[in-house]
Design goal:
Elements lengths: L2 E6 L3 E7 L3 E8 L4 H10 L5 E5 L3 H8 L2 E2 L2 H12 L5 E5 L4 E6 L5 E7 L7 H10 L4 H9 L12 H13 L4 H23 L5 E4 L6 H11 L3 E3 L6 H10 L17
Helix pairs in contact: 1-2, 3-9, 4-6, 5-7, 7-8
């Protein structure tokens, strides 16, 4: 059975086609019309069932059909599929971050989520990289090259940006400021993980897991086996696709122009 998993996030839309594993995956910007982006993505694929997760899941299913699943469960299933020894999932996305504790059987037992502001998220890093005039793809490498340290006291995007501007005016190196920003996020995320009661193995998902500096700093603060998932951005969509294969036929989606067997 061929299934689609769609993760409609605040920054990007991820699509995974699966028949028990990943057949193909696609990532596009969410843009100003996520429904149209999703319609275009699905129109070129043939599938039997679809499951949708992410911020825009209800928008998409109300127009195109299908079932919804929470990001918590989707990331847990996707991470567990990729790493059967996973006991903790840390997902740092565009505008939220979450820590999910799993049982030995892979069931969600506890979680903590920050979805009320951009503190400790990909958007926070984007704003800070822009302030430092650094390409976001190079931000982690710049932070790793820091030879000195400073303190960033706030993770509020507005206040932190003011601190960065002040540090620039004081002559602080960009690498030093970048290192402080990454350290502040790692401290916040590890605090969430400690409150949840993380267990190894810890798997990082979401776009920020592509940032090697952030992964390294979180690993150091947790003091346990912590790795980024392969293709971390698609983990939620993969989990949704795998869950679609377990759903009843009522979850079948038939968007215009798509052939469903």
């Amino acid at each position: 059975m061929r299934c689609c998993g769609l993760d409609v996030g605040s920054r990007t839309i991820k699509l995974v086609t699966s028949e028990g594993g990943v057949l193909d995956s696609t990532i596009v910007d969410t843009g100003a019309n996520p429904l149209e982006r999703c319609r275009d993505l699905l129109a070129s694929r043939t599938f039997d069932r679809i499951m949708v997760t992410g911020y825009g899941r209800y928008l998409v299913t109300s127009a195109l059909g299908g079932r919804t699943v929470s990001e918590i469960k989707a990331h847990a299933v996707g991470a567990r599929y990729l790493h059967p020894d996973c006991r903790t999932v840390i997902d740092i996305g565009g505008q939220d971050s979450k820590v999910v504790l799993l049982s030995d059987e892979g069931q969600v037992t506890r979680f903590e989520m920050n979805d009320r502001c951009a503190a400790g998220t990909g958007r926070f890093l984007e704003v800070m990289a822009n302030t430092l005039e650094v390409d976001i793809r190079d931000f982690g490498g710049l932070a790793l090259s820091a030879s000195s340290s400073v303190q960033i006291n706030s993770l509020c995007t507005v206040f932190a940006e003011s601190e960065v501007v002040s540090l620039i005016a004081q002559g602080a190196e960009r690498s030093t400021i970048a290192g402080a920003l990454h350290g502040a996020i790692a401290t916040r995320i590890s605090g969430m993980a400690n409150r949840v009661g993380h267990r190894p193995r810890v798997i990082l998902t979401g776009g920020c897991a592509l940032n090697g500096c952030l992964v390294k700093m979180i690993r150091e603060r947790l003091g346990t086996d912590t790795v980024a998932a392969p293709d971390p951005q698609i983990v939620g969509a993969l989990g949704a696709a795998l869950l679609a294969g377990k759903e009843s036929p009522a979850g079948i989606c038939k968007p215009p122009g798509n052939s469903v067997s």
